[in-house]
Amino acid sequence: MKIVSAAEMREIDRLTSERFGVPSLTLMENAGTAVAEFVVARYPSAKRVGVVCGKGNNGGDGFVIARKLHEWGREGRLLLLLAEPAELRGDAAEMFAKLPSPPVIVRSSEGLKGADTRAVLDCDVLIDAILGTGFRPPVSGLYAEAIALLNAREAPVVAVDIPSGADADVMGEQTGAVVRADAVVTFTAPRPAHIFGMLTSGPTVVSPIGSPAGAMVSSLQLNVITAQEVAPLLQPRPPASHKGSFGHVLVVGGSVGKAGAAAMAGMSALRAGAGLSTVATPKSVLPTVAGFHPELMTEPLEETEAGAISLRALEYGRMDALVKGMTVLAIGPGVSRNVATAEFVRTVVRKYATSMVVDADGLNAFDGHAKELSGKGRSLVITPHPGEMARLAGLSTTAVQRDRLNVARTFAGEHELTVVLKGHRTLVVQPEGTAWVNTTGNPGMATGGTGDILTGIIAGLIAQFPDRLMEAVTAAVHLHGLAGDVARETMGEQALVATDLVKTLPEAMRRVRESARQSAVRIGGR
Fold it and tell me: What CA–CA distance (Å, rounded) separates 459 from 268?
């Protein structure tokens, strides 16, 4: 799903009406109806809903919400209008005229203190329809005071389009007076702040309101991964399928003390749907890997005195024979930072044209050798966390975190590969700069091994869809985070461990298929 700027959203609305003949009044009606439906579904026991409206189109959406809730039998449909009715224009004025009962009108700070205002703010649920994505902060005067009152209430607040006071184009922290929303319902496409701004403690829902695909314009080269993009890779398999139909993953990794990393990557590839998964690992740790799960195949590699993969593993064509016939190679989980092993990793990455995923200490092997990391003419995916990205790019971790998108875009373009920059709002960036943002996942996944699970899922999906690299990678990232969200429901965040994700991945897949059938798109939140 495309992410668009506030200006582009205005252009989409204009094109929808002028080129495709959908009246703007219809768009407003659909928007207000979508919010009302969300409120009724999420808060079924709420009888009294307070709607706080400004004088612009966001307020017009609020008028529709108030009318719809009245039609659906909600009690105490109270409305607070922070303007004179005479100030209303266009569609907002038309929707105001359709209200079933007159609103409470507040003209000054004193009006915010009155009994009628308190009656609105004391409802079971509050609707923030004061300011939309077209507004540019800061907020001042009466609107700022109204926002402060909303933030002081204990009732849940649902923001229409965006929490009032927020800048829709800001990718970081918001400043000034901003409504603290418990949920956001926006329309057609998200803006940058919906994805990066942490605007709500709950879900952000993107509802279609009538804009056709032909009206969508965006120059940001930025997308959010949704179930609709992932589900096509999770369809029923042909009846005549066999294990060879779904690819063979080779995981090269492990060392003494880190055997589990390679084993988890190998098992995750199978759980993601790969037909076969082989883990090539130092001889001394092979029994540990083989004992992890019976479905894993293993291959012994020559090792150093420290129990890491040795350069001798490259002799006599051993690796050539292993790589031959493999669909995808994942290298790095648990390989250690041994000097000889790092040279082995760099050699393997340079030598073989097989689709490849490089992670963990496989990336650290290129510390000081980043120029050797090239995806030219092949499919190469790297999955750094911010520290690893910093070492590869010659930056500080702080600098990476401050400008994640541009750092990832620059590296992907210069090295002609796909970057999966992990962290909150993991980014998947193509060499030409197109980026996808993931909104699944939670802090419980900040534990050792979850990156190895991600590597395996990516490799497993590439094995099944070798000609659909970007779809496979974005799907893997989304499913990985969603599996973490499923695990949190029973494990909690503190107790969650990496192998929990292997167990919950099937449920994550089921939820993706179910979500993809819905017209509205849910982005993050519980």
Answer: 9
* pLDDT tens-digit readout, 266-311: 999 999 999 999 999 999 999 999 999 999 999 999 999 999 999 9
Give the amino acid at 441: G
Q: Which among 218, 235, 261 is the end of a domain? A: 218
Q: Are residues 195 and 289 in the same domain?
A: no
Do residue 157 and residue 111 come from a single domain? yes
Nearest residue to 430 (alpha-carbon basis) of 396, 505, 390, 380? 380
Same domain, 311 and 196: no
User: Which of 117, 97, 118 lies closest to 106 in space, CA to CA?
Assistant: 117
Of 168, 199, 218, the residue at which a domain comes to its end is 218
409 domain-assigned: no
Contacts of 77 by beta carbon, 8 Å cutoff, 6+ apart: 48, 49, 51, 66, 69, 70, 100, 101
- Strands 435-437 vs 427-429: parallel, antiparallel or unpaired: antiparallel
One domain for residues 266 and 362:
yes
Provide the pLDDT confidence category of residue 114 given band limits of 50, 70 and 90.
Answer: confident
Q: Which domain holds residue 463?
A: 247-378+441-516
**Long-range contacts formed by 521-524: CB under 8 A, 24+ apart:** 521/1, 521/205, 521/206, 521/226, 521/227, 521/228, 522/203, 522/204, 522/205, 522/206, 523/190, 523/194, 523/195, 523/203, 523/204, 523/205, 523/206, 523/224, 523/226, 523/439, 524/203, 524/204, 524/439, 524/440
CA dihedral 101, 107, 110, 113 (to 10 degrees): 30
User: What digits encode the pLDDT tens for the residues 464-493?
Assistant: 999 999 999 999 999 999 999 999 999 999
Q: Structure tokens of 226?
A: 């949704």
SS3 76: strand
Residue 162 falls in which region: left (phi positive, over 0), alpha (psi -120 to 50) or beta: beta
Taking residue 490's Cβ as centre, other Cβ atoms within 10 Å add up to 11
Please tell me the total count of domains within the chain.
Answer: 2
Q: Which residues contact 434 (CB under 8 A, 6 or more apart)?
A: 221, 222, 223
Q: What is the mean pLDDT of the chain?
A: 95
Amino acid at 320: D
Three-class secondary structure of residue 489 per DSSP:
helix
Q: Convert the pLDDT of each residue in 368-415 to its tens digit.
A: 999 999 999 999 999 999 999 999 999 999 999 999 999 999 999 999
User: Is the distance from CB of 275 to CB of 459 less than 8 angstroms?
Assistant: no
- Residues with Cβ within 8 Å of 356's Cβ and at least 6 positions away in sequence, in order, are 328, 329, 330, 331, 349, 378, 379, 380, 381
Distance CA 339, CA 361 (A): 11
* The amino acid at 185: V
Whether residue 46 is found in the same domain as residue 119: yes
